[in-house]
């Protein structure tokens, strides 16, 4: 029986998931609540406390030695606060202190959700065995995280690797983040769909105007849908190549809903990458789909907790 056991929370705008996870990444107990995203911040915290309460009801809870939290961002791991864009009641919300209080003082490790998925992919997914990797989540937004020198690299605030907000189009559209021409403004699901609609693509009889519907149209050969994915692929390639040039990653892993589009995305992405990743030391860069599924956020939060709380006391580290 594995003695390593941690609690994990995966906090997003739709759901708050919790689990007890062992040192091999197996989920041994779970709990979940819907995120009351538009409610008062204390109401959101109550849902978090209920998830932790469910986990505490497990006979395994007594063995949990720390808690890992992967949260929608931005997060500030140095301050222990979160300000998720789609949870307006939480602005600089002291999540780490509150979770510590609810759980009787267990150590808490906070990272952004992109970093959490990176931790999961490095531990159990497509980046396994790679010491230098970029993992991306391409869905409603574009997030990511880095593994450098064999270790997760969350950065001081827990947001390092946030590739969605690298500018790849100098005079591009204003991005809600305040910059211009960001990867996310071109390559996220809603922006792929927006571009297709602006250029004359029309949804089928079901009215589905999502990026998944655009992907289906692209697979069927619709030129506007194909072009919208090609543009997204170009933005992703530019961001990935910039990252590889800066820190020498040798693999980029793409997950999230848009990452499931398959060849419609990956074929133009690999082609565009040969244009942007031209220097000798980035030419071996590979791009692959993510392997960890819907539990990636929980598994990654657990990985961060396990990595940061070795059995030696903190004082002697």
UniProtKB/TrEMBL annotation:
Q: Which InterPro entries match?
A: ATPase_NBD (IPR043129), ROK (IPR000600), ROK_cs (IPR049874)
* Source superkingdom: Bacteria
Q: Which PROSITE patterns match?
A: ROK
Q: Which Pfam families match?
A: ROK (PF00480)
Q: What family does the Swiss-Prot or TrEMBL record give for this protein?
A: Belongs to the ROK (NagC/XylR) family.
Mind telling me what this protein is named? Sugar kinase
Q: Name the species this protein comes from.
A: Streptomyces capoamus
């Amino acid at each position: 029986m594995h003695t390593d056991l941690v609690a994990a929370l995966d906090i997003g705008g739709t759901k708050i998931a919790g689990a007890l996870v062992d040192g091999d990444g197996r989920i041994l107990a779970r709990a979940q609540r819907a995120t009351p995203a538009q409610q008062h911040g204390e109401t959101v915290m109550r849902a978090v406390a209920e998830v932790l309460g469910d986990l505490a009801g497990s006979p395994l809870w007594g063995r949990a030695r720390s808690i890992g939290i992967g949260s929608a961002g931005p997060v500030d791991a140095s301050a222990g606060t979160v300000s998720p864009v789609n949870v307006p009641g939480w602005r600089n919300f002291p999540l780490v202190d509150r979770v510590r209080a609810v759980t009787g003082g267990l150590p808490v490790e906070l990272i952004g959700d992109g970093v959490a998925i990176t931790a999961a992919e490095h531990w159990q997914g497509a980046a396994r065995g790679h010491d230098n990797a970029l993992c991306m989540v391409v869905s409603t937004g574009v997030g990511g995280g880095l593994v450098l020198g064999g270790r997760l690299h969350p950065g001081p605030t827990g947001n390092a690797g946030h590739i969605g907000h690298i500018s790849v189009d100098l005079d591009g559209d204003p991005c809600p983040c305040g910059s211009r021409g960001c990867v996310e403004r071109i390559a996220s699901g809603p922006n792929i769909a927006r571009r297709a609609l602006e250029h004359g693509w029309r949804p089928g009889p079901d009215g589905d105007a999502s990026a998944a519907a655009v992907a289906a149209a692209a697979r069927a050969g619709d030129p506007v849908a194909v072009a919208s994915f090609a543009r997204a692929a170009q933005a992703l390639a530019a961001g990935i190549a910039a990252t590889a040039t800066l820190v020498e990653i040798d693999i980029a892993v793409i997950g999230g809903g848009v990452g499931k589009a398959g060849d419609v995305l990956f074929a133009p992405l690999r082609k565009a990458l040969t244009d942007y990743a031209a220097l000798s030391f980035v030419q071996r860069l590979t791009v692959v789909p993510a392997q960890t599924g819907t539990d990636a956020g929980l598994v990654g939060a657990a990985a961060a907790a396990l990595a940061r709380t070795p059995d030696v006391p903190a004082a002697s580290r």
